[in-house]
Protein: Adenine phosphoribosyltransferase
Organism: Gilvimarinus algae
Amino acid sequence: MISDYLKNSVTRVPDYPKAGIQFRDITSLVADGRAFAEAVTALAEPYLSQAVDKVVGIEARGFVFGAALARELGVGLALARKPGKLPRATCRETYTLEYGEDALHMHLDALEPESRVLLVDDLIATGGTALAALRLVRQLGASPIGAAFVIALPELGGLAALQRQRVATHHLMEFAGE
């Protein structure tokens, strides 16, 4: 059970980035040591008894939670980054945004074939970036054991899209209709 303290540590920013959007800002959560520790512990809990070989943090706030979660699980961290951010050979997956297209990259040697991988990001909405990261993981021959998020916006379909791809999801809190 997630505490009210943790849920209340997320700041609601009305009309950002445009009118009608209720943006959920997790920077206030990570700035609060108690809330951040509670979030990392709660994210890790379902995976403590599972074999996890690597955590994949999705750019950019997924790096914050991914690094802490990798430390908690005693495994390494691989990064799914925006174009032009990784210095060595990469694989690439594109995804659609409401205003165009973007991509994620991973180093070709970021994951061992058949390794068991946990995807991590701060928030899941439509699932575009998470699904692109999932395709990267599979492209590198690894197996996703799950995807963990601090916040889910279930009405936007991302959780369901991951579940249709046979990826178990875990999230700490959700907000409806946003």
User: Anything to note?
Assistant: The chain has one domain: 49-174.
